[in-house]
Amino acid sequence: MSFLNQTYKNFDLFLADDGSGDETRDLVTKFKRDYGFPVIHVWHPDEGYRKSKINNTVFRQLDPKKYQMVICVDHDVIVHPQFVEDHFKAHQEVGFTPLMFMGRRVDLSEALTKKINTSNVLQFTSGLQWELVESGLKGETKNVMRSLRLDAPAWVLKLLKRDRVFDLLGSNFSISTQALMDVNGYNEDFKSYWGEDGDLFVRVRNSGVKCTGKIGYAVQWHLYHDRLEETPEHIEMYRALLKNTDYKRCKNGITKS
Questions:
Q1: pLDDT at 109
Q2: Residue 209 placed within a domain
Q3: Over the stretch 129-169, which tens digit does the pLDDT of each residue have?
Q4: Which residues contact 163 (CB under 8 A, 6 or more apart)?
Q5: Which candidate, 82, 56, 78, 102, places its Cα nearest to that of 196?
Q6: In a domain, 37, yes or no
Q7: In 10 A of CB 221, how many CB atoms?
């Protein structure tokens, strides 16, 4: 719903569906019918956690001449009305040269998440609500102050320590489409939760693409849910990759080599 409320509207919405059932398909059909919004629904059957594979299936459909950049989000977030605009401006400022721009998010509490429905889903996008602040003061909602969008001069962001983001959050980043193709998208060797986003970040960084970000820019709120557990194998694989500065392109990605 929050993508209907964007200030920048010249974008297509690709839905990478990792094996949802008929209920999701019906919901997408209703959404397109009711709002006339351009949604391209890309689906594959449920064979476990396969984020890397379904994302690459979407990426294969992207022509870099038509889509200069890709913004990646997860299904369990609400985005600020200027979310798409902020990502677009980050790339526009560098003349759409190779860039990865990374945002952050507010992690909503279980109690606040349970209160959200289709009629009030945009409540947090209109300002810093007291209910959100109260939840933060109780230690339930994390990083509440990230709700405040701050489009300020570089020296102000540096003073407030909001001028840098050091790692990739899979629910909030954008990347030049050609740069994404050059590193071959997501690594499909990651077949269970955790590590797939970091693997992508390592390859992009090693390729010399500028990786940057801001806190309080491209704002999003993450709905509470039980978290999956990472596997020891993925942790070991990722730690090894961090040390490999020659790792710039995966073999099992958008293309297979």
A1: 96
A2: yes
A3: 899 999 999 999 999 999 999 988 989 999 999 999 988 99
A4: 154, 157, 214, 215
A5: 56
A6: no
A7: 27
pTM of the model: 0.94
**Of 215, 151, 209, 157, the residue nearest 180 (C-alpha):** 209
Residue 20 lies inside a defined structural domain of this protein: no
CATH number at residue 147: 3.90.550.10
Of the candidates 158, 236, 178, 220, the one whose C-alpha atom is nearest the C-alpha of residue 62 is 178
Least confident segment among 11-20, 121-130, 160-169, 181-190: 121-130
Structural domain containing residue 76: 65-242
What would the two tokens of residue 86 be? 């902020």
Query: pLDDT at position 37, please?
Result: 82
**Do 40 and 61 form a contact (C-beta atoms < 8 A)?**
yes
Number of domains in the chain: 1
Say if CB 110 and CB 225 are below 8 A apart: no
Burial class (CB in 10 A: 0-12, 13-18, 19+), 78: buried
Radius of gyration, alpha carbons of the chain:
18
Asked if 201 contacts 166 with a C-beta cutoff of 8 angstroms, the reply is no
In a domain, residue 249? The reply is no
